[in-house]
Amino acid sequence: MRIFNTTGWTAVFTGAETETGRFRPVEAWDQGTGEALVVDPQHGVLRPVSYWQDFSHLERAERVVGVVPGDGWRAHWNDEGGKPLTELVLAWLIHANGLATPISVDPDGTVGTAELADRILAPGQDLDPHH
């Protein structure tokens, strides 16, 4: 699973009696201790990862530094559920390393990454490369 955030780090929690294992994006670093801070969804505040007993470790995440519009690009899958599928690229996530990830939207409005698409089509490009 790819996780995107602005710090480039994700906190991993193993799970406890009351919560399952989970990933949370690191939102910031404590100025005094340098400890990773994540959002406490119960209280809507930033807390150090050590606040939770089931904190395991930090992992690198994809650091997003910008977003640009999809501008007519499309993602195409040759066989998605038994038939071909083409979705509009809503936006491109620009990473710190210069790579871009297409974010597509389906007809129902569901948004997701299209990095596993079979082809990414430029604006005006046909599926048939001979046209």
Keywords for this entry:
131 residues; mainly beta; seven-stranded mixed β-sheet; three-stranded antiparallel β-sheet; 13 strands; DUF2750 domain-containing protein
Question: How would you summarize what this structure contains?
Answer:
The protein is mainly β and 131 residues long.
What does this structure look like?
The strands form 3 sheets. Strands 1, 8, 9, 10, 11, 12 and 13 form a 7-stranded mixed sheet that branches. The chain has strands spanning 4-5, 9-13, 22-25, 28-29, 36-40, 45-48, 55-60, 62-69, 74-80, 83-95, 100-105, 111-113, 119-121. The mean pLDDT is 89. It has no helices and 13 strands. A hairpin with a 2-residue loop joins strand 9 and strand 10. It has 131 residues and is mainly β. Helices cover 0% and strands 52% of the residues. The chain is elongated, with a radius of gyration of 19 Å. It comes from Nonomuraea roseola. This is DUF2750 domain-containing protein.
Report the mean per-residue pLDDT as an integer: 89
How far is the N terminus from the C terminus? 36 Å
SS content category: mainly beta
Proportion of β residues? Answer: over 45%
Residues in helices, as a percent range: under 10%
**Low-pLDDT runs:** none
Please tell me what the overall shape is. elongated
Any idea what the radius of gyration is?
A: 19 Å
What's the order of the H and E elements?
EEEEEEEEEEEEE
| Total beta strands | 13
The largest sheet, given as strand count, sense and whether it forms a barrel, is:
7 strands, mixed
Number of helices: 0
